[in-house]
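**User:** I keep going back and forth on a fold encoding question. It is easy to fool oneself when nobody else works the same problem. Could you pick a protein and write out its sequence and tokenised fold? Could you put it straight underneath, so I can go through it closely?

**Assistant:**
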Amino acid sequence: MSVAEWKKRCETEWSLQGAPMPDSLDWKSVYDAKPFGRNLLRNPAPHGLSQDIPPPEPDPPEVPTRGPPRFQPDGDFSSWTHSTEVLPYDTSGIPAGVAVCGLPQYSWFSMEQVVDLKAEGLWEELLDDFQ
């Protein structure tokens, strides 16, 4: 197929009428990347099949583990950034002079992934000018 035919195929298949489509792009590579109609995030450990199905419960270990539960998921999340924010203790309801033996510690665990849209097949003119 010629460059014009690949460009036309992308335009009709992805309904890109009115979108900037420069002739300088390799439209066969764009078509092969299929940047539309798919999830651009990489998920190495998907749990549920849909939002209606909860993730499977792990089997409890035969011997209880020591320490707090693990919050990092299984899988290769090397391309993700993750952080844990330990929340401060709430001592507002403790009267003065009371001996406190232990307080629960809470934290937030968050994961973030950066997606290079150009590497996924989108082009600069589309990202800058088209909505």
About this structure: The two ends are 29 Å apart (CA to CA).
